[in-house]
Fold this sequence. Notes:
By secondary structure, this protein is an all-beta fold. It has no helices and 12 strands.
Amino acid sequence: MNNYAVGGFSNGDFNYLNIDAAAYGPEGLVMQASLQRISDDNKDWRDTDYLVSAALGKQMNEQLQLGFNAYYSRAESYNINWQQNTENVSVEWTYAPYVRWTDIDNNQGWDLELKQLAGRYRYVQGRAFYYVNQAWSVGLIANIRNTDNLSDNYELQTQYWFNQHVALKLGLGSALDSGSGLNSMSLLLTARF
């Protein structure tokens, strides 16, 4: 079944938009695309990040899916001060494989995925979700960063589909190091068509 979803939130000067699409073709072919836009605006600066991804994969059997991702990342930063305005733009292309294992029977079971992501920072993401039933899932997302000066992040998430078109996702995360407390929170309303 093909899947198309739009999600996002806005909190004052901070805005997030996510658009996802997945299409399933003959002989286990899987095509996915997504667009993320994050913007943070205030009187002194404006930061906007875009991440566009496309993936082509193959369902090897009922559980195993292997594929390849391509990412286009664009970061725009505009600083405003009384002496001089500055604008910086950085663009990056990244390519990486992914693996996904799904074992769901009677609307219950595991969905596991491992992939490299790119954007403002490169990192490896592992996802482990358990589907309690068709509407509700709980899981862990681990973002392992590739640099020494950035902390990893581990976020517990839960998602509930109120019907086949609308879902709410909530997550709380931490770097889990000695001085780290809560450092991420996800609250996302998703509409699926």
